[in-house]
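Could someone model pyridoxal-5'-phosphate with this protein?
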Amino acid sequence: MNVRQDFLLNPEYTHLNHGSFGACPKSIFEDYQKWQLALERDPVDFFVNKGNEQLERSKEAMAKFMGCEADNLVFTMNPSYAINIVAKSLVMKPGDEILSTNHEYGAMDRIWKYYCEKAGARYIQQEIPIPLKSKEEFIASFWKGYSKHTKAIFISQITSMTALIFPVKEICQRAKELGLLTIVDGAHVPGHIPLNLSELDADIYTGACHKWMLTPKGCSFLYAHPSIQNNFDPLLISWGYDADVPGKSKFLDYHQLQGTRDYSAFLTIPAALEFFRSRNWERVKRNARQMILDNYQRLCDIFGDGPICPVTDEFLGQMCSVPLPIADPMELKVILFDEYKIEIPVFKMHDQVFIRLSTQGYVTQTDVDYLVTALTEIRDSGRLTMLS
Ligand SMILES: Cc1ncc(COP(=O)(O)O)c(C=O)c1O
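Reply:
Sure, complex below.
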């Protein structure tokens, strides 16, 4: 089944960048608008009753989907918000270290640098060399960054720029043995690869639902293990602080009650799960993952660099990043967008240029073939500034 017609995407473009901001199918978007309309029809009843009831339903559905209790979860607008809550409240002394990798998302790096700097602590971006050869090699590289000052680890389960699945379960297990706080950035995970928070057993986990779960923008979450929930101050002080009628926990009061706001996107989780069910999404995802495995080497062969990991589903989901021997990412990005109408990210990470392909239900093999043709033509045209 081609689900292309389910999406709202502009048909004039070939959309190969699901990873950045996702894409929302019509049925889920209509559900979102339904909640917005319900809010405007009866604002008071919505905020006092109906909205809260649906918020609970949505949280229950999300919690069941990823194997945790709904009360250990709060929706946030995006993962940046969630990690700001955590980093701002984390008690760090001068000299403490937060161990991370050099593959993390730029906004997250900035959050950790900011709060570490304020506390005199250090944010360690441990180098994970690419090409990555094995899980064991990854684990060994990561723990080279550990020292007696390490207080917590912060790591992506799927990286943004390099599009790699990291073995976070093994990392969290070891971190627990070392007595470290475990914080996982799963922005790309829900709806992409299997997620079971009870099994993973991280202390803190954030994920975005507007990427691979296909909800409208502004739907993400913060999960915190009950043993540490009370450690986090609200990022925004409102009715939930010193609440007149305290709810089930401070964690829920502090991070859910944030003044008047449109949280309709949070309410669409049941519609997203129904979309998955009705479209047999597990099969769609399998095909999209296979498309990555089938095409990664082929894409790498165009410029002769990569792949950056073994081409197996241990490291690859519905994205892959191809290193390019070119100087300026914008040169290629602009040609692909303006002349070929292909939407795909081309960017620099630590002086290395990459192009990242995302496959989603609406992406066909013909689309990937078109990308291969475009890249080959652009390479042969001699218009790119190559690295010497
Ligand atoms: C690995 C990773 N973490 C976090 C984020 C969340 O970013 P934001 O809070 O800007 O939505 C993203 C977004 O692409 C990401 O790829």
